[in-house]
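Retro notes (design track)

What went well: tokenization of the new backbones is finally stable.
What didn't: we kept losing track of which sequence belonged to which structure.
Fix going forward: every design gets posted as structure first, then sequence, in one message. First example under the new rule, 135 residues:
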């Protein structure tokens, strides 16, 4: 499975929104070693600012639920209101794994809901499955 886009001109970009610096570093390292471009932000408000810009192209968003400024659920709600982001895959990656949070995230359009601690190999496999299904 090659994470490069079909036209081969650039790597697919994934937006990572997590307030924990070590999680951002782990995800950035994993994604970039796998051929993706990782763009990281530390809160939901910054994620929404980036997503509002139609010039920024993302293949997928990885978001935590509990973040300052705006939560991952608010990020999902915001994406749902952005016409240019409809259908953008979002994976929620969180330590808060209650069924109600999972149900709410999936109802708001999340493609998947994974709990921390996570297996980097399984996460990457899931990202590739989602993106292969979106192509």
């Amino acid at each position: 499975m090659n994470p490069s886009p079909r036209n081969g001109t650039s790597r697919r970009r994934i937006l990572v929104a997590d307030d924990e610096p070590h999680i951002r570093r782990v995800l950035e390292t994993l994604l970039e070693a796998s051929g993706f471009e990782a763009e990281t932000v530390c809160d939901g408000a910054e994620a929404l600012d980036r997503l509002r810009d139609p010039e920024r192209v993302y293949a997928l968003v990885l978001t935590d639920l509990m973040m300052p400024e705006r939560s991952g659920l608010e990020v999902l709600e915001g994406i749902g209101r952005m016409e240019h982001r409809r259908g953008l895959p979002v994976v929620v990656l969180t330590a808060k794994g209650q069924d109600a949070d999972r149900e709410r995230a999936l109802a708001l359009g999340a493609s998947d809901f994974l709990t921390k601690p996570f297996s980097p190999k399984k996460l990457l496999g899931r990202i590739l499955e989602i993106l292969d299904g979106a192509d």
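Added context from the reviewer: The two ends are 12 Å apart (CA to CA).
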